[in-house]
Write a structure and sequence with these properties.
Number of helices: 4
Order of helices and strands: EEEEEHEHEEEEHEEH
Distance between the termini: 31 Å
Length: 184
């Protein structure tokens, strides 16, 4: 028998990312744990409406999603502890600007540069519905076929109810193999 535990989101853990955006002519970085996939060509980044970063995203309609690994976790965590309204975070990470002027964290193993297609507002939040313009990956996290290799990437995961960071685990099998095997 299941126990009712309220109405909380039960879809964690999610990959931990740092969102980058140009705000008032400078890069700004924000630690984000609320994001999702919306099909094969769209992602959603949900930020509290009061965040400083939102100003730049709404102005430029661009952002970067930088996947966090353990090597960059301390800086990424700090990016979530302070507000760009109070602290200049522009030099927190070594970065480059992509062709569209979007800040990309050099140390991040994988970065997606996105264009905002729509903004969905809910109580206290702005969710940016984005198309992916480009994905950049360090060579050591790409396999021979040119695909991301999550055995090498090892993104940090974020688990909301306890505010914990988790490591990725072991592979237990291939997608759509367990159902096939049970039918044979």
């Amino acid at each position: 028998m299941k126990k009712k535990i309220g109405n909380g989101v039960a879809l964690y853990p999610t990959p931990l990312v740092v969102v980058g955006a140009m705000v008032n002519g400078k890069p700004n970085w924000l630690l984000v744990g609320h994001l999702g996939i919306m099909g094969h060509d769209h992602v959603m980044v949900s930020l509290a409406a009061a965040h400083y970063t939102n100003q730049g995203i709404k102005e430029t309609r661009k952002l970067s999603i930088n996947i966090v690994d353990e090597d960059m976790l301390a800086k990424a965590d700090w990016a979530g502890c302070v507000s760009g309204n109070k602290v200049d975070k522009s030099t927190l990470f070594d970065h480059t600007l992509d062709d569209a002027g979007v800040p990309v964290i050099t140390q991040s193993p994988v970065t997606m540069v996105c264009s905002v297609e729509d903004i969905y507002r809910t109580k206290g939040f702005e969710s940016f519905i984005c198309t992916i313009d480009a994905t950049y990956a360090q060579e050591n996290v790409v396999d021979e076929a040119g695909k991301l290799d999550y055995h090498s990437l090892k993104p940090v995961l974020f688990e909301m109810p306890t505010y914990a960071y988790l490591k990725t685990g072991d592979v237990i099998g291939k997608c759509m193999s367990f159902g096939k095997e049970s039918q044979d």
